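thought: user wants a sequence for this fold. calling inverse folding tool.
action: design(structure=
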C-alpha cells in the first residue's frame, strides 16, 4: 500500500468547504441564530482573512493552522448567515391577519383539479385592513370549491377576496409526518377555502415568461400522453415519469412503488437526466463547433429540469451534468465527489432549507453511496460473460445506492424494502425504455398511426411494470415496517458504515 497516498480532499477540495457550510446552516436552524450575529461573525473573520493577506510569508506559514481554523469559521458563519437571511419561518411569525382583511394574491401555478375543489399555490401581494396595508413575503394554498359554471383564475392572474386565511396545521396530531413544517420550508404558511363567487378578478397579471412557457409546454405534453396512453394508472405514471407531474398518480400504486424501493423511478432524478444527457449527446455528436455542442446540451438539460418542476434532486443532477459538460469542454477530468459537493453548495446557497428536504438528502446519499461502494462491490465478482457482467453491474449499482440511504429511510419512513434488489433490477431498465418511448411519442405525435402504435406499446410496458411492482409489494415479508430510529442511532449507523467502507475499499487491510 502506498504510504504517501494523496488525501482525497486534494482531488475533491469542495468537500472541505461543504462540511462547515452545512454545519453552519444546521446550527443556525437549531439555535435560531439572529441574522445580525451571523453577519457580525462573517464580517469579522472576512476582515481578518483580508488582513492576513498583507502579512509576511514566514508569518503566514507559522499561522497556517490558525488561518485554516479562521477559514472554516468564515464558511460556517456564511452558511449560518444565508440560513438566517432566508429563514422561511421569520416572515410568517411576524404576520397577524385581522378577520376583516382584504387579501390580494396572484397565482404561481395553474389550478390543479382535486376531488371537490381546485387547488393553486399563490403569493401574497397585499393585506389591507382599513387604512393599513402590509405586503407579506409568504405564500398560501388557495382552494376553490368546484362549480361547473365558475370562472377559474389562471397562472399569473391577480385576484382579491375578503376571507381570513388560516395557518396550515397537521392533518393528524402526533403523526410522524409534520405537514405544517413541510409547507413552511417551502414558505407556504397559510391556506384559504373560498367559493368562486367570493373571488374578485383584478386588472394586470404577474407572470414570468419562462414559467409561462414551461406551463404551456407541460400542458402540451400532458395532452399528448392523455390522448395516446390508455388507463388512469398508466397515464398518471407516464406523466410523472416524463415531466414529474404527479397530480394524476394513483395513491395505492405510488405506495406500492414506495414499499418496494423504486419510488425514485417516479420522481425525476439523475436517472432521467442521465438519459436526457445521453440522447442530447448522441444528437449533438456530429457538431464540430466547440461551444455549440455544450450550449445545446446544457440548454436541453436545464429546460428539462425546469419543466420537471425544478425539485432539489433534479437541480442537483442538472448542476452535476453541467460540471461534467464544462469539464469535457475544457478537456479536464473532475472528481465526481467534488462535483457533488459543488452542486450541493450552490443549491444550498439558493435555498439552505433544502437541507431538510427528504428528497434532497436521499438524492445526495444515493449518489455518494454509488461513488463510494459501487466499485468495491462490483470487484467482488468478475465474469467474462458480458450478459452476466452487465447483470451484476446493475445489481452492484442498486445495492450500493441503498447503503447510505438506509439510515435516512428508517428515520423518515420507519420501513425498509427487503426486495429492493429484485424490484430495481426490473424497474430501472424498464422505466428507461418507457422514458425514451415517451420522448419518441412527443416527437412523432403529429403522425397519427405511429403515435397510436407507440402509445399502445407504452401502455402495455407501463401496465407490465405496475403489475410487477404491485405483485412484489403483496409478497410476504417484502417490506420491514415499524423500524423506528432516532437521530443518535442514525449517526451511529453512519459511523458503522464509515468503518465498513474503510475496510471494504481496502483502506486498512489490517482490519480484516
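)
observation: tool returned 512 residues.
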Amino acid at each position: 500500500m502506498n504510504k504517501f497516498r494523496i488525501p482525497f480532499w486534494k482531488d475533491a477540495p469542495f468537500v472541505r468547504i461543504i462540511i462547515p457550510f452545512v454545519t453552519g446552516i444546521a446550527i443556525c436552524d437549531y439555535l435560531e441564530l439572529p441574522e445580525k450575529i451571523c453577519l457580525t461573525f462573517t464580517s469579522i473573520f472576512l476582515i481578518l482573512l483580508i488582513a492576513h493577506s498583507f502579512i509576511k510569508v514566514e508569518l503566514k506559514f507559522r499561522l497556517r493552522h490558525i488561518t485554516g481554523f479562521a477559514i472554516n469559521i468564515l464558511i460556517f458563519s456564511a452558511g449560518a448567515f444565508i440560513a438566517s437571511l432566508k429563514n422561511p419561518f421569520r416572515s410568517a411569525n411576524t404576520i397577524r391577519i385581522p378577520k376583516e382583511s382584504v387579501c390580494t394574491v396572484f397565482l404561481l401555478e395553474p389550478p390543479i383539479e382535486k376531488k371537490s375543489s381546485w387547488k393553486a399555490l399563490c403569493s401574497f401581494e397585499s393585506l389591507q385592513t382599513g387604512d393599513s396595508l402590509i405586503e407579506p413575503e409568504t405564500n398560501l394554498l388557495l382552494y376553490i370549491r368546484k362549480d361547473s359554471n365558475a370562472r377559474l383564475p389562471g397562472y399569473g392572474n391577480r385576484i382579491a377576496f375578503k376571507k381570513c386565511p388560516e395557518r396550515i396545521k397537521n392533518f393528524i396530531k402526533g403523526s410522524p409526518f409534520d405537514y405544517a413544517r413541510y409547507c413552511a420550508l417551502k414558505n407556504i404558511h397559510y391556506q384559504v377555502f373560498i367559493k368562486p363567487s367570493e373571488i374578485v378578478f383584478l386588472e394586470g397579471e404577474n407572470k414570468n415568461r419562462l414559467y409561462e412557457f414551461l406551463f404551456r409546454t407541460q400542458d402540451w405534453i400532458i395532452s399528448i400522453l392523455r390522448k395516446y396512453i390508455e388507463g388512469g394508472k398508466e397515464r398518471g405514471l407516464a406523466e410523472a415519469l416524463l415531466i414529474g407531474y404527479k397530480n394524476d398518480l394513483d395513491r395505492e400504486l405510488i405506495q406500492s412503488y414506495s414499499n418496494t424501493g423504486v419510488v425514485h423511478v417516479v420522481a425525476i432524478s439523475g436517472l432521467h437526466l442521465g438519459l436526457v444527457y445521453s440522447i442530447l449527446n448522441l444528437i449533438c455528436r456530429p457538431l464540430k463547433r466547440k461551444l455549440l455542442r455544450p450550449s445545446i446540451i446544457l440548454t436541453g438539460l436545464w429546460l428539462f429540469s425546469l419543466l420537471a418542476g425544478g425539485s432539489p434532486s433534479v437541480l442537483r443532477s442538472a448542476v452535476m451534468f453541467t460540471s461534467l459538460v464544462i469539464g469535457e469542454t475544457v478537456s479536464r477530468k473532475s472528481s465526481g465527489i467534488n462535483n457533488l459537493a459543488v452542486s450541493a453548495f450552490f443549491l444550498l446557497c439558493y435555498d439552505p432549507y433544502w437541507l431538510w428536504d427528504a428528497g434532497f438528502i436521499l438524492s445526495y446519499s444515493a449518489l455518494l453511496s454509488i461513488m463510494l461502494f459501487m466499485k468495491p462491490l462490483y470487484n467482488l465478482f468478475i465474469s467474462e460473460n458480458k450478459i452476466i457482467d452487465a447483470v451484476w453491474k446493475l445489481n452492484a449499482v442498486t445495492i450500493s445506492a441503498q447503503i447510505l440511504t438506509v439510515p435516512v429511510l428508517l428515520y423518515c419512513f420507519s420501513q425498509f424494502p427487503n426486495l429492493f434488489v429484485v424490484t430495481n433490477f426490473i424497474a430501472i431498465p424498464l422505466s428507461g425504455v418507457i422514458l425514451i418511448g415517451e420522448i419518441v411519442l412527443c416527437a412523432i405525435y403529429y403522425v397519427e398511426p405511429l403515435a397510436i402504435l407507440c402509445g399502445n406499446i407504452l401502455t402495455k410496458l407501463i401496465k407490465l411494470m405496475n403489475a410487477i411492482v404491485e405483485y412484489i409489494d403483496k409478497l410476504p415479508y417484502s417490506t420491514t415496517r415499524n423500524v423506528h430510529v432516532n437521530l443518535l442511532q442514525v449517526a451511529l449507523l453512519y459511523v458503522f458504515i464509515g468503518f465498513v467502507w474503510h475496510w471494504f475499499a481496502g483502506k486498512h487491510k489490517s482490519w480484516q
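thought: summarizing for user.
answer: Here is the designed sequence. Residues 508-512 have pLDDT under 50 and may be disordered.
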